[in-house]
From TrEMBL:
The keyword Isomerase applies. GO terms for molecular function: isomerase activity. Keywords: Isomerase. It comes from Flavobacterium rivuli WB 3.3-2 = DSM 21788. SUPFAM superfamilies: NTF2-like. This is Ketosteroid isomerase.
Length: 117
């Protein structure tokens, strides 16, 4: 696996968990396709990701920690994550494993998909 991918993935989760949208967007293609995991469908582009995350964080408090990072035969990067989602009062809504699957173009995240483990 390209070590740059692992570094980018690690930085992305650190930025997401610290709510540093700008730091994460620097790691994404300007036309990134990002899943709206709790709503279905996707958003496209930096501003749409910013709007989606801002809305998401006003409703829930997710924390996502990578457990393993591997490269699939098709070149995509699979990240098994421990995902803890709480409501704004601190009640647990979800606590479990999920797979995040990334496609890269020019060393930037171009697509992210979510798969059940």
């Amino acid at each position: 696996m390209n070590s740059d991918y692992k570094d980018i993935i690690t930085k992305a989760y650190i930025g997401f968990n610290s709510r540093n949208i700008d730091a994460v967007l620097l790691l994404m293609d300007s036309n990134v396709r990002w899943p709206k995991a709790f709503e279905g469908d996707y958003v496209t582009g930096h501003e749409a990701v910013r709007e989606y995350w801002t809305k998401q964080w006003s409703e829930i408090n997710p924390k996502v920690e990578p457990a393993s990072i591997t490269q699939r035969a098709d070149g995509k990067i699979e990240v098994e994550v421990n995902q803890l989602v709480k409501d704004l009062e601190g009640n647990v809504l979800f606590d479990g494993k999920v797979n995040h699957v990334y496609t890269f173009e020019n060393n930037l995240i171009s697509v992210m998909d979510v798969e059940e483990v």
